[in-house]
Amino acid sequence: MEYVDDLHHLAEAHHISLDYWAFDGTLKNVSNATLTSILRAMGIDASTDEAIEAALQDARLKDWRATVAPTTVVRQGESTTVQVHVPHGSRVTVTLYVESGGERPCQQVDDWELPRTVDGTLVGQASFAIPADLPLGYHTIVVSVWPIQGSPFTESGMLITVPSVIPSPYDANHRGWGVMAQLYSVRSRQSWGVGDLADLGELGSIFADSGADFVLINPLFAAQVTGSMDPSPYLPVTRQFFNPLYIRPEDIPEVAYLSAPQRALITWASEDVKAASSTNTMIDRDAAWKAKKSALQIIFDAGRTYARQHEFARFRQRGGEALEDFALWCALHETYGDTLPEPLQDKESAEAKLARVKLSDRVDFYAWLQWIVDQQMEAAQHTATSAGMRLGICHDLAVGIASDGADDWANPGAYVHGVSVGAPPDMYNQQGQSWAQPPLNPETLPQLHFAPYIGALRNVFAHAGALRIDHVMGLFRLWWIPEGSGPADGAYVHYDHEAMVGILALEAVRAGAVVIGEDLGNVEPWVRNYLDERGIYGTSVLWFEQKDHGEFKEPHEYRQHVLAAVDTHDLPPAAGYLAGEHVDVRERLGLLTQPVAEVRAQAEAEREQMVTLLRRFNLVGDDPTERELVEAMHEFLALTTAELMVVSLTDMVGERRMQNQPGTSTEYPNWKIPLADSTEDIVMIEDLPTHPRYRSMVEHVTQALSRAAR
After folding, report:
1. Section 454-481 average pLDDT
2. What b-and-e string marks burial along 559-593, b requiring 16 or more CB atoms within 10 Å of the CB?
3. What secondary structure letter does DSSP report for 283?
4. How far apart are CA 652 and CA 179, in angstroms?
5. Which has the closest alpha carbon to 497: 517, 473, 514?
């Protein structure tokens, strides 16, 4: 038992939970094999008693081996201290260098912690008070040490001052609403087979005229540059840069100055994929990108004016090392394919540095693509807010990245391999989920000053009025599944949520944006309270808002500081859900662990319970049509206390097919289904303003919100 106890102590020292509450309400213990595998992935040997004892000793001395913590996060206005560790008897001073300029000395305060022997040296601890009136921002702590023996030295760390709360743009009497759309699936007659940023601007204008405050879209992060592009927007290669697939080539200013033959080449490249936009066939990202890339290459090669070239140069300067690394990663994969030669897998290798020079033209091209994406994202946000949207574009931050992605390559040590992020079994995914994503390493993030996380937030906030955080529990804990194990054989690994949420709040306040956390599923109540206190909206989905005994909640029982919706991208649209599509698809794909008749009976009972609820509030009659039921469900949301609500565009046109079936990859055409109506006729963006079902939904939602406000 000593071995087991020490293993458990070691796991807890590295923030690995020893048990978890399953969706059926039972407490499950994590196996020793899982704990050992996760520790191994973290680089910690727990294979023997001796190895465990040595690892425990390392964990106890970790803080004492650092002169100052690499990163400290504090809330603005709160008094706090930082501890420094120096050879016992040393004279030490601590100075803060503020991000905006200037320096602030820190006063030493009493610290009665006894010295410890660390690696043969007696080390003492001293504490220094951090000024409570520091401005928000990223500051530098410099520790100057004069030991009794040896030379003086300095060490530095980062101190991040964050806001306690993200302010809301709404007053107590305003209810905001928006439209949720999978951008790639919503095409116009000018789309190159995939919805793009020009289409996003059009959607923002149309929805604004309908009274919407925002348009919530899928993540737009970059995918693979060679081979087949992964269709999942939630499995990108980076969370810092964006997919040039969403560029509208004709909107690039240089196109106006191309020669007639060059313009003809662009027109020819677009013909087939533009024709595909009006057909109800699965979205072909690879064909769209092949055509679009050839056009973009022509535009890039044509050059730019002096002023435009300097604007591009300034963009690259702002992007810094992160942008240059991403562009090099793209150029390397374009040249060598999916698997890079071993010397090029290290960006600091001599071969990689030589490749940066040899492939400079391709690096320039991929950096230029990011500049164009940035400009067109800015234009889409401007169009939306100019049309009257209060928030404009609400972007979506994916949980993580694909294995061997660009962020992983550029930030060695930031991610953990040998495990995958996922989810334990739940009601809707009874076999659990593995998302094929390496998790960020909670132990190295502070050493990296949270740079991969900050970079992701800063870039996605650049042209956003709001940001949805997919699986916001990932800021608190993630379900790690050891390589070779099933989703049920994982464990939760915890993160420094105070730091993660604090940095999110800082970047949101700097951007003037709202944050919405997707807090569905197995979320501890205190987490929802904590997010609410920090000004982060939660998420309520109508089908999931049930009491302990299974009845749907009354409108007054909804949380106030949430975004309410009828469905999500992981469920069928409302019409499909009412028809039991979520049961049919899972039965067909073999994803059920209960008898299908039992699951179908549960779904039918749930539907009848929903209809009864809607009748009770006089929202439907005795024999409602599908459209009337879907509209009534949204009217019900308008009666709730939720401050924000969102309507899925699929529900506004009658689509039944779901965009994604969790727990599948190739078994279902995830993320490939174009927007269509109830008869599976394609719905184009140009058709929306006059689409009868769209107009009816807008009328019902706006009138319901107006009545609720009285």
Report:
1. 97
2. bebbbbbbbbbbbbbbbbbbbbbbbebbeeeebbe
3. -
4. 9
5. 473
Q: If you average pLDDT over residues 660-669, what whole number do you get?
A: 86
What is the signed CA dihedral for 374, 378, 381, 387, rounded to 10 degrees? -150
pLDDT band of 427, cuts 50, 70, 90: low
In this prediction, residue 586 has a pLDDT band, given cuts at 50, 70 and 90, of: confident
- 325-358 residue pLDDT tens: 999 999 999 999 999 999 999 999 999 999 999 9
136's torsion region: left (phi>0), alpha (psi -120 to 50) or beta?
A: beta
Answer for the pair 648, 675: CB distance below 8 angstroms, yes or no. no
Q: Rounded CA gap, 532 and 538, in Å?
A: 7
Q: So what's the pLDDT on residue 3? A: 45
CB-based contact 533:498 (threshold 8 Å) = no
What would the two tokens of residue 561 be? 């500081």
Q: Give the DSSP H or E segment for 516.
A: strand 514-517
Candidate from 30-34, 392-396, 423-427, 525-529 with smallest mean pLDDT: 423-427
Taking each helix axis from N to C terminus, what angle separates 32-41 and 2-13, rounded to the nearest 10 degrees? 40
170-227 pLDDT tens trace: 876 678 999 999 999 999 999 999 999 999 999 999 999 999 999 999 999 999 998 8
pLDDT, tens digit (0-9, with 9 covering 90-100), for 56-66: 999 999 999 99
- Dist CA 92 CA 303 (whole Å): 56
C-alpha radius of gyration, the chain, whole number: 27
Helices (H), 395-540: 406-410, 451-461, 497-511, 525-533
CB-based contacts of 214: which residues, under 8 Å, 6+ apart?
176, 178, 179, 384, 389, 390, 391, 392, 393, 394, 465, 466, 646
Region for residue 517 given its phi and psi (left: phi exceeds 0; alpha: psi -120 to 50; beta: otherwise): beta
Q: How far apart are the first and last CA of the chain?
A: 65
* 210-244 exposure pattern, b = at least 16 Cβ within 10 A, e = fewer: bebbbbbbbbbbbbbbeeebbbbbbbbbbbbbbbb
Burial environment of residue 679 by CB neighbours within 10 A (0 to 12, 13 to 18, 19 or more): exposed
DSSP state of 546: B
Average pLDDT over residues 148-160: 96
pLDDT of residue 172: 66
Q: How far apart (Å, rounded) are the C-alpha atoms in residues 59 and 45?
A: 12
Residue 565 reports pLDDT greater than 80: yes
Q: Distance (Å, rounded) from C-alpha 631 to C-alpha 699?
A: 10
- Letter for the amino acid at 329? W
Q: How far is CA 316 from CA 354, 372, 537, in A?
A: 20, 12, 34
Q: Residue 428: its pLDDT value, please?
A: 61
pLDDT digits (tens, 9 = 90+) for 468-501: 999 999 999 999 999 999 999 999 999 999 999 9
Reduced to 3 DSSP states, what percent helix, strand and coil does the chain have, rounded to the nearest 5? 40, 20, 40
Considering the entire predicted model, what is its pTM?
A: 0.95
Euclidean distance between CA atoms 98 and 138, whole angstroms: 7
Burial class from Cβ neighbours inside 10 Å (0-12, 13-18, 19+) for residue 537 reads: buried
Q: Where are the alpha helices (DSSP H) in 152-248?
A: 197-209
Measured CA to CA, the distance from residue 323 to residue 321 in angstroms comes to: 6
- Partnered with residue 153 across adjacent β-strands are 145
Give the residue from 638, 606, 639, 612 showing the smallest Cα distance to 624.
612
Amino acid at 169: P
